[in-house]
Amino acid sequence: MIDVYLGLGSNLASPLQQLLRCVDVLRAEQDLQVVAISPFYGSTAIGPGAQPDYVNGAAHIRTALSPTDLLQLLQRVEQSQGRERGPERWLPRTLDLDILLYGNQVIDQPHLHIPHPRMCERNFVLLPLFDLAPDLVLPDGTALRTLAERCSHDGLWRLNTAAQ
Questions:
Q1: Are 159 and 151 in contact (CB under 8 A)?
Q2: CATH topology for the 2-162 domain
């Protein structure tokens, strides 16, 4: 089993409920084990146009699935919760699941980049991940603690609700 960290996000159709439902679906999956879920955060949407705020979090899972098989599973979960994919990025979505880290592997494929290429730039990814694994070291040797300490909290607020 490989330790994997996922980013969770939603800004449509009751975002907090979308994430809680997602966590329940992941817990029911036979091919993975949910180890922990971070606290959830509200965050200001980035991208084009006016969008509703996001709810974000992170999950620590263990799985024997390959990175590609895990990606396919996560995309099925997204689709089951109404995620629509289009050619544009950064659009509102019911559910957004990203593989942030897959063990200590570095993967660069056309549709799969691990570590997630923008995770170090995004407070709504770094801070929930830091809540889960404050002593984590990224594959390039960078301590997550260092990134989290330098990270701005602008546009991010911790919610009082967490996955049970």
A1: no
A2: Alpha-Beta Plaits (3.30.70)
